[in-house]
Every structure is written in structure tokens, then in C-alpha cells.
Amino acid sequence: MEEVPGNQSDVFAVRKSKLDSMREAGFDPFSQNFDRRNTSKEALGLYRENSTEQEVVHVGGRIVAFRLMGKAAFLKILDCDGQIQLYISQNDLGEDAYGSFMKFDTGDIIGASGELFKTKTGEITVRVKDILLVAKALRPLPDKWHGLTDSDQIYRQRYLDLIVNPKSRNRAKKRCKIIEELRKFLWSKGFEEVETPILQSIVGGAAARPFVTHLNALDQTCYLRIATELFLKRMLVAGFDKVFEIGRIFRNEGISRKHNPEFTSLEVYQAFSDYRGMMELVRGIIQHLCRTVVGSMTIVSSDGTPIELGGEWAERRYCDLVIEATGMPDWFSIPKEKKLQLCTKLGVESNPSGEDFEVTNDIYSKIVEPKLIQPTFVTHLPRELCPLAKLNGEDSRYLDVFELCINGQEIAPAYSEQNDPLIQREMFEKQIGEEKHNLDNEFLLALEHGMPPAGGMGIGIDRLVGLLTEASSIRDTILFPLLRPQQ
User: How far out from the chain centre does Cα 205 lie?
Assistant: First the structure.
């Protein structure tokens, strides 16, 4: 086992030659299995301090480091739980077995068994008595000191990033744990998990450009879903009072540090609740994840600012935040042209042909939201922003909704859901204009059978994972983000 100089093709050729010689000698590593009885964590836990008798463990994993010392070597192998050190010597293995071991390379996957002991430096180690190569790595791992440094390679060859980068590996494991604990929390509150269609004949539940496909069997155009909302509300009509879905959402739009065209979303709906009930629910979810996964109620923002997620959270009205950002108390009464002039002055790009409320929302999304670092419920959004929410009972210009912002981005929107089918039809028709064929009459038909008052909420899982693991980009939280094909 030794470092081979040269480029990737040279290394591949040398390792392929080793594989060929093994097969010629009657040994094929890819046909082998190994009875791995202990993970690295389990094996380390079996060591008995100050005992002359130690456990024999059977571990397996990928060789990630080795140190050769004549007729002995120390290896580090990586498995699902972490790393463990192995000590291999010619005296313990025998001359022939040790000679075969010397053909192993960093990156190879092996199984080994032996008794535990502690080295002079205090590291618990396996004194290997038997060792078996179960998968030969024909290509080397990235440089152990620098890992992967090219961002495109990190995302394109995520499997290598997960091997050599402990931070990426831990984030991936935390994502799994976050989703597990999210489900446990909702189940403990009486919610039932359901599945709704990904392939839909009419898109709805959000304002987004869909991916379009064709269903040959029915000769019809179909769309990948942009939200799960309208089908989950059908479940409320059906009498399922607490439902949620964790699933993939597809939006044929831009890619950025905060957006990916394919992402994972949680949507949750609760009958006989409202947007304030959703405030309690989302705060409970995030604080539960802080306790069970993060281990602290304090996380750190992208610029190093501590973010406190414990206790109560701030609540601010949308219009008040916009007025503060613009410095204009009469902002909501001035003409759109004057708003556009101020946008230019503030360095905010806004579409001159857009609606008045869209100009205001550009101010909010580009100036207000990035400054909301501590958890803040932004309430009373303008009615034009969401046709699926109830109008505020005191002022019909606004909606009974909130957007939860943390670390300068939206983490969870929530509504008091509109359950009046006549108002819902009217708001849908205003939203789609002349495109009546896009009206979801099946959903409206369900609503006409009666849906109880309800609160609904969505959480982008990728953003939530990024927040709780302090990732700088949504791509860091998605295992295999979509990339341009390599030339």
C-alpha cells in the first residue's frame, strides 16, 4: 500500500493492475461479503478501561488514512458512524496475508476483526487478526489535507464530499434527524401524514411556473406540482382534521443561494385553528428541533450574529416594516410612479409595469426581509399577495397570515385558510384573469361541500436545515442539486 504519483489515469491504471492480479490469483474482492457486527461507534464503546480482557470486534469501512511502519501499519477506516483505527502487523496476520494487505489502497472498503487495545497515545484501536478486501477503489480519494475545493465538484461528486468533509457528512446526518424529529413532533400532536399527487392536471396552491410534461395514456398535458395545498385541504373536507405532507415540490424558476427548482416542503393543515395556532405550532417545531438535534436554542447567522430561538418571538406588521424601510409614513397612499422613484433611489429593482402591491413587495423582500435576523412573525400582509387566505376581520385590505423570517429569509408562511367557496372562487378568478381553463373547479367543488375553519403552514425543509446547520447556500443542504451537464 503506497502513494502512486501521476494523474488520475495513471492511478486508475495501477489500481486496475492490482485488481487484475488479484483475480488472476483467484480472489475477486467484489464477490466478497463480510459479517460486520460492530459499527465504529459500537466498537469503541466496547472497550473496557483497565481490563486485561478486551472484546473481539468485527468492523468494516473505507480506508481513509494509513501509516506504514515496516512490517506493521496503522489504518483509519470510515463507516456510517465515524472512524476507528486498526493496527495491522505481519506477526498477527502472517506473511502471506500481510503481503496481500500491502496491495490495499486508500479508498478501498475492507472488513477486519480483532481485539481492542489502547495505543501509547491513548487511542482505542483494533489489533487485526483477520482482514478482507470487499471492494477495490479504482480511483483515489481527494487529497486528505485539502479535500474538495472546487464548488462544482463538491455538488457534482457529493459522495466524495461526504467521505472527506466531516462538516458535510454531519449536515447530511442532521438533515435526516431533522426530518425524523419533525415527523415525531407532528405525530405527537395528533397529525396524520398523507401523500398527495405529484403529477397534476391543473397546478395550484402557489404562484409559480410549473414543469410541464405529457401523459401519453390520456393524451393530456400534466404538471409537476408546485404545492401540496389544494389536495391537503380536500383532506380537511373529508374530515381529517390534522394532516401534513413532506414531499418534493418542483418550480421551473430561478436558481440562487436561497432557491432550487426542486426542493422538499412540509405543509401542515389543522381544522378549527387559524394563523395564530400556526404560530404556536411552528415555534414548537423549531424549538423541538433545537433541543433534539442542534442541542442549543442559539444558532449563528451568516455574519456570526447569535440568533436566539428560545422563548417568545417578535411580531411585526408588514405595513409598519415597509414604512420604516422607506421612511415614508404615507407610502401606501402615494402613486405607484412615486414608489418606483424611491425604489430607484434605494437601489431596488422593480418592474415598472408591475402592480402597485408588487412594487411594495419588492421593497419588503429586498430591504426589509434581509434585516430580519432574529425570529420575527410578519403579519397582516396585503390581500393581493395570497388568494388562499382569509381576509382580516378588522381591515379587509389585509390577510390573516404571517411570514416567519429568521436570518434574513422566509422560513415559514402560514394562513387562516379561506373556506368560503364563493370568496375563494372570486379570488381565484382575479388571480388567473382570462385564463379560465386554469381554474381548479375540482378544488372549489370540494370546498362547496364545506371545509372547517383551519390554519395552514408551509416550511421549506432545505432552508430549515440550512438555518439549523448554519449552511451558507441551499445547495449545501441538498445532497444532489441539479447542475448543468458537464461539457
Answer: 22
- Pair 31, 137 in one domain: yes
Average pLDDT over the chain, rounded to an integer: 93
Domain boundary among 111, 141, 171: 141
**What's the CATH number where 254 sits?**
3.30.930.10
User: Beta strand 82-89 with 192-193: parallel, antiparallel or unpaired?
Assistant: unpaired
State the pTM of this model: 0.91
Count of domains for the chain: 2
Residue-range definition of the domain harbouring residue 176: 162-313+374-476
How high is the pLDDT of residue 259? 85
Q: Which of 133, 34, 42, 131 is nearest to 90 (CA)?
A: 131
Is residue 233 included in any domain, yes or no? yes
pLDDT, tens digit, 9 for 90 and up, residues 254-311 = 888 888 999 999 999 999 999 999 999 999 999 999 999 999 999 998 788 999 999 9
Q: If we measure between CA atoms, which residue out of 427, 440, 378 comes closest to residue 403?
A: 378
Q: pLDDT grade, residue 6 (50/70/90)? A: low
- pLDDT tens, 408-422? 999 999 999 999 999
Please state, in angstroms and rounded to a whole number, the distance separating the CA atoms of residues 11 and 5.
7
Q: State whether the Cα torsion 230-232-237-242 is positive or negative.
A: negative
Over pLDDT 90: what percentage of the chain?
A: 83
Contact 289, 468 (CB under 8 A): yes
DSSP string, 52-118: S---EEEEEEEEEEEEE-SSEEEEEEEETTEEEEEEEEHHHH-HHHHHHHTT--TT-EEEEEEEEEE
What sign has the CA pseudo-torsion 159, 165, 166, 172?
Answer: negative
Tell me: the pLDDT tens digits for 183-227? 999 999 999 999 999 999 998 888 889 999 999 999 999 999 999
Q: Of the candidates 285, 294, 310, which has an alpha carbon nearest to the alpha carbon of residue 186?
A: 285
Residue keyed to cell 440568533: 307
At residue 3, the pLDDT reads 47
Backbone φ, ψ for residue 308 (5° rounding): -95, 115
* Domain shared by 136 and 199, yes or no: no
